[in-house]
Write a structure and sequence with these properties.
alpha+beta; 22% strand; four-stranded antiparallel beta sheet; disordered N terminus; 7 helices
């Protein structure tokens, strides 16, 4: 990987790019119910037109997110890549919500927080609506939970939101933003 001058993130080598495309292509065809109205050829074309986004998708993959397309924005035409691992990505667990929450812990401070890790990957946490959309594409987080983007009015009061799927139903909860658990990570998105 080398750092791209046009982008703050490293760029993948041609071989790394081709390997990532192979992984994404196989996953796309294996899970057609997630994106019935999309074609791989158009998605690959969109990816190749925005090579600066490959590194972020590679980071989603490296940390266990198993990124896949779950839809297309009608207004912009962009495809929405989201973590589609069955459980919250293993490489992103045991994180509190954000830096303020992380720094507020006097004891047992976690090494990372979800908001900063997502930004470092060049991606964003799922919103509540996007988390519900993801759950229409399958059942995710049936044993784990995932932090989601928290509205400022909740965050100002010390809370943060997370979601999971239990009993065949999606739930959104709140917790202190400074809390962290080995089975709670975070899911992210990237528009291409």
């Amino acid at each position: 990987m080398k750092r791209s001058s046009a982008n703050q993130f490293p760029s993948l080598s041609p071989n790394e790019t081709e390997n990532l495309l192979d992984v994404l292509r196989v996953r796309f065809h294996k899970h057609m119910s997630r994106h019935a109205d999309c074609t791989w050829e158009l998605i690959e074309e969109a990816l190749l037109a925005q090579p600066e986004k490959f590194w972020s998708i590679a980071e989603m993959e490296r940390t266990g997110g198993e990124p896949d397309v779950i839809g297309q924005d009608e207004a912009s035409g962009e495809y929405l890549f989201v973590d589609c691992s069955a459980e919250s990505p293993k490489g992103r667990t045991a994180t509190c919500y954000d830096r303020e929450a992380q720094m507020s812990r006097k004891e047992h401070q976690p090494a990372h927080n979800a908001v900063d890790l997502a930004a470092a990957m060049g991606v964003s946490l799922l919103t509540e609506a996007e988390y519900f959309l993801l759950q229409t594409r399958g059942e995710f987080d049936v044993k784990t939970s995932s932090w989601i983007h928290t509205p400022e009015e909740i965050r100002q009061r010390g809370g943060a939101l997370f979601g999971d799927c239990r009993y065949g139903r999606t739930f959104i909860y709140h917790n202190g933003a400074q809390s962290y658990y080995s089975n709670r990570g975070f899911r992210v998105k990237l528009s291409v």
